[in-house]
């Protein structure tokens, strides 16, 4: 008998299916941000790793951005090249007094001679034997060109999540990285709140400047994410009485701080340890709901699947994701293991969604022929597995078919449904890309050059948070 008829006969099961779909809809509101691309599988920040993160179904791909000596914007986590390249081998003597090799002291042509290395080869990540691979540091433009191209061939929107790294450091070096980045974004068609991009930065004053000054000049208005650091980090500093002083973020997580942010910011991001302590207690129990009530999303970082990096209140990566997505209630996570996180959201089956309705069976009741449903999420694979193939007949929401009785399982959403838009923010929304299936790379836009003050060289800059 046709399954659809069976379900119509059974109000309980129709309700059950509806509940399942509602739960999937909630799960699908959650996003996966590929932290430094598919860094847990194929090294951080390189073009193959971006392609892998896209193929695994990530909603957003992160780009950390710094500048070169010749004013090119490259995708590199920190201003120094030491940790992820063979720069010391290729350019001995080019380090600064602190012993580090700064990208800003090298031209793009020089940086392109370097090859990437896996910084954590002993933790089960990509083997550090890549002498023949020659993976290189990408420019921001190369990465956007790749992503725009894949959007066209895969016929889906691919989110980007660029981070402007240490504007204070670049300013010290005489460079306006924010202007350089937003000009490139404009050139590649990212202009409005509707575009699938979150532009992130740790520097609150710089984000304010981007919103109040740079966006109006370039006639754009992107969703901005305020990253929140602890007060000891190197991400944000200001020159006070001749000394570079760390920024104090204390005001930002208060209700009034969040309210101030919400007038121009789409969301906040912070280390997950700011939200939850090592025992699993919420440290800022109202933060997520406060942010949501102001229309802001919350995207903590960084989630790894390696057991030694898990905190004591969970035993698996999936438990960690379950805890943050559905107990803490965050909207998305930055993760090195984007493929595993995508699978987690796809496969998640909350217990409340699968309890059979307490209703007497009627003739032909679908329960007579359906196998028992699981009441807990099934075990997930321990190694990354590619998600289902991307549909070839175009993007958009594919209706969830009622499965045939012989093979019934909890319906799985197609990859193309895992690209929800984040919560809208109260900012005005100018023109958007009209047809998401056709995402042309627009002609370069002529924009005014910023006025950059002359500044002195730094004495020391730490390379990493
Ligand atoms: O940008 C947020 C997330 O990436 C964490 O920061 O230090 O990895 O750039 P970081
Ligand atoms: Ca980052």
Describe the protein's architecture and organization.
By secondary structure, the protein is of the alpha/beta class. It has a domain at 27-347: TIM Barrel (Alpha-Beta Barrel), CATH 3.20.20. It contains 14 helices and eleven strands. It has helices at 3-9, 11-29, 39-42, 47-55, 87-90, 108-111, 140-154, 167-172, 177-187, 204-218, 255-262, 287-293, 317-328, 338-347; strands at 31-34, 60-67, 73-75, 159-164, 198-201, 223-228, 237-240, 243-246, 267-270, 297-298, 332-335. Strands 1, 2, 3, 4 and 11 form a five-stranded mixed β-sheet that branches. Helix 12 (287-293) links the parallel strand 9 (267-270) and strand 10. Helix 4 (47-55) runs parallel beside helix 7 and helix 9 crosses helix 10. SN-glycerol-3-phosphate binds next to strand 2. Calcium ion (CA) binds next to strand 2.
Which CATH C-level class of the domain at 27-347 is it? Answer: Alpha Beta
Tell me, briefly, the overall form: globular
Count of separate DSSP helical elements = 14
CATH superfamily of the domain at 27-347: Phosphatidylinositol (PI) phosphodiesterase
CATH architecture field of the domain at 27-347: Alpha-Beta Barrel
Binned, the helix content reads: 25-40%
- Chain-averaged pLDDT: 78
The main β sheet shows up as: 5 strands, mixed
List the uncertain runs. Answer: 1-10, 15-25, 353-445, 449-465
- Oligomeric nature of the chains: single chain
